[in-house]
Amino acid sequence: GQQLxxxxxxxxxxxxxxxxxxxxxxxxxxxxxxxxxxxxxxxVLLIALYKAGELTSNGRLTAxxxxxxxxxxxxxxxxxxxxVGIYFCAGQRAGRSGNKLVFGAGTILRVKS
Amino acid sequence: xxxxxxxxxxxxxxxxQRVTLRCSPRSGDLSVYWYQQSLxxxxxxxxxxxxxxxxxxxxxLERFSAQQFPDLHSELNLSSLELGDSALYFCAxxxxxxxYGYTFGSGTRLTVV
Lengths: 113, 113
Known about the structure:
The structure holds two protein chains of two kinds. Chain A is mainly β. Chain A is built from no helices and eleven strands. Chain A has strands at 4-7, 10-14, 19-25, 31-37, 44-49, 55-58, 61-65, 71-76, 85-92, 101-103, 107-112. In chain A, β6 (55-58) and β7 (61-65) form a beta hairpin. Chain A is globular, with a radius of gyration of 14 Å. Chain A starts with a strand and ends with a strand. By secondary structure, chain B is mainly β. Helices cover 0% and strands 53% of the residues of chain B. In chain B, strands 2, 4, 5, 6, 9, 10 and 11 form a seven-stranded mixed sheet that branches. A four-stranded antiparallel sheet of chain B has the order 1-3-8-7, with no helix packed on it. In chain B, β7 (64-68) and β8 (74-78) form a beta hairpin. The termini of chain B are far apart. The chains are: A mainly beta, B mainly beta. Chain A binds chain B through residues 1-2, 30-31, 33, 35, 40-45, 48, 50, 88, 90, 92, 94, 97-106, and chain B through 2, 4, 31, 33, 35, 41-43, 45, 48, 50, 55-56, 58, 90, 92, 94, 96-107.
């Protein structure tokens, strides 16, 4: 089952609004990642965070790696219609057991133009 | 195009049958990961191979098996199929070893009828 709690489950916002979503876990991760999935496609990496406290931007996207290493958030500023899709957070622990990613359940973003 | 190639894109088969899904990783990537995505379970990690060897195992059923060949492509075999196996199956690849995110393929949509 899922080990990451991602919220909200879905959002319906006006074009131009800012969006915020977050992920929490009871476990510590070495890396936090945010992916976006469009219909019929695989998830595409948006932002990767490697250090606790790190704040990283990618265009209108900003994400932070929580200081406790158990949470992360993603902000999208000035949303546009092509932001529609499912956003997933993922945590990764590098180690002898491999580099598997654990995914949140996703946030469905719908933008009203 | 992500560089990760999955075939077939769609597959419809009957219960009790066996199918093979194929994945060619991005050039230079040594690790291949298989994920199952269903509506109620999100993205579930199945198994990871690194340079031909199994590296990590997730929630993979005994009816499912995988392997990675010397040319690094991977196959996921699903047997004695049940209706509940209907899902999107994603392959992802990474260089392996470093805590970087994966690159996903476009997935194979399996429908069991």
